[in-house]
Amino acid sequence: MDASILTIDDSLPLHLLMRSIFDSQGVTYHSAYDGRRGLAMAADVHPDVILLDVDLPEMDGFEVCQQLKSNKETSPIPVIFLTAGVTRSDQAKGFGLGAADYICKPFVAEDLLASIQSSLRKRHSNERSVADRITAAQNREVLEEAIAAQTARAAASGQPMACISCDVDELRIINTHQGRGAGDEVLRSVGQLLLSRCRANDTVFDCGGGKFVIVAPGMNRRGAGRVAHELCEEVMNLRIVAPGVKTGVTCTFGVADSIVAAGQSLLDRAEGALTKAKLNGRASVSVARPPR
Questions:
Q1: Cα–Cα distance between 97 and 135 in angstroms, integer?
Q2: CA-CA distance, 95 to 116, in Å (whole number)?
Q3: What local confidence, expressed as pLDDT, does residue 38 receive?
Q4: How does DSSP classify residue 140?
Q5: Are 213 and 148 in contact (CB under 8 A)?
Q6: Cβ-Cβ contacts under 8 Å for 272 (sequence gap 6 or more)
Q7: What is the C-alpha to C-alpha distance for residues 238 and 196, in angstroms, rounded to an integer?
Q8: Residue from 272, 63, 262, 275 nearest 160 by CA
Q9: Model pLDDT, residue 290
Q10: How far is Cα 32 from Cα 38, in angstroms, rounded to an integer?
Q11: pTM of the entire predicted model
């Protein structure tokens, strides 16, 4: 395992145990004994994975995780909570903050190594899947896998997850009348807006043809609906200006969550809501309702 790992925990025996586990694994190991030092080291050494205790002096692990995920430099780093006495509410809170996994103390070394390997594979997959030079959103190819993983996590934590489907209105007309350069500027501007408005643990996917999908763990359809309405307004205020290009743009949104999906495809439910919104005209939002 060629990786760099940072453990943030106030227990010296735990760090000694970690070093003994990682000695034969080809791991570069870093230790921090409190949250503030851990945040500083994460920003300095950029580890591949962070192992984080919840019960820390001064600043607990949840606050550390929140700060890691709100920092663009450290937000891509997978965080695995490694703590004793895990409760369902703790798991829900941790996953809601963007944690990759929870390992309960005392732990089995093989389980810890498997979780680290899984987090590394997912991170590398995400890094490879950045869509293209235009939007910097994730690729369509990993959307289904991401939804499946987040759905399983939501079921385990008892928390909802939402899916927002977004379609750039009349992109084909923009491409035809103002040129492909104008269309690319529209996609870039909309993509940047969606990325800037999302939380650290949300993911934006560029599905091609002017369609985007936002996966929002820990959010229900009501909250996602508010986000979609805000985005709809903000897109209308965009003015795309580039050499030879000057145009406005609107987007239409469909929203669903894991509750209304009720065993169906969450993405299909969001797409169905988007289709309904399209029937209502451009620049509108439709939120899926529970099946009767």
A1: 25
A2: 16
A3: 95
A4: G
A5: no
A6: 254, 256, 288
A7: 14
A8: 262
A9: 84
A10: 5
A11: 0.59
Average pLDDT, the chain: 87
Q: 130 versus 146: which is more confidently predicted?
A: 146
Q: Tokens for 241?
A: 């200006």
Q: By 3-state DSSP, what share of the chain in percent is helix, strand and coil, each rounded to 5?
A: 50, 25, 30
DSSP class of residue 137 equals P
pLDDT of residue 180: 80
Alpha-helical runs (H) found in the chain:
12-22, 35-45, 61-70, 88-96, 109-128, 143-157, 171-178, 180-197, 221-236, 258-261, 266-279
Domains and CATH numbers, the chain: 3-128 (3.40.50.2300), 138-287 (3.30.70.270)
Structure tokens at 230: 């805000």
Unique residue bearing structure tokens 């950045």: 130
Report whether 46 contacts 74 (CB < 8 A).
yes
Question: Which string of b and e fits 103-120 if b means at least 16 CB within 10 Å?
Answer: beeeeeeeebeebbeebb
Q: Does pLDDT of 119 surpass 70?
A: yes
